[in-house]
Amino acid sequence: MNIKINRDALLKPLANVASIVERKHALPILSNILIQGKDGQVQLTATDLEMQVSLSFKA
User: Fold this and answer.
1) Where are the domains of the chain?
2) Nearest one of 19, 27, 23, 18 to 49, comparing CA atoms
3) What are phi and psi of 34, to 5 degrees?
4) Is 7 exposed, middle or buried (0-12, 13-18, 19+ CB in 10 A)?
5) Cα–Cα distance, 33 to 44 (Å, whole number)
6) Global pTM?
7) For 5-31, what is each residue's pLDDT tens digit?
8) Beta-carbon neighbour count of residue 46 at 10 Å?
9) Tens digit of pLDDT for each residue in 32-44?
10) Rounded to an integer, what distance in angstroms lies between the CA atom of residue 56 and that of residue 5?
């Protein structure tokens, strides 16, 4: 799948979600952000197993 997103539209939501992602986590999968796209919306999700952040915005 290929998506095109305006850089400025992506940076702020990405920074908010990335705030709970630790770079060196015991479980490497928790050092990532899930990006999902559907019907013109993009959803970013991250977790540290105690807290989850999920943001959606128009692509």
Assistant:
1) 7-58
2) 27
3) -85, 125
4) exposed
5) 7
6) 0.81
7) 889 989 999 999 988 887 777 888 888
8) 22
9) 899 998 888 999 9
10) 13
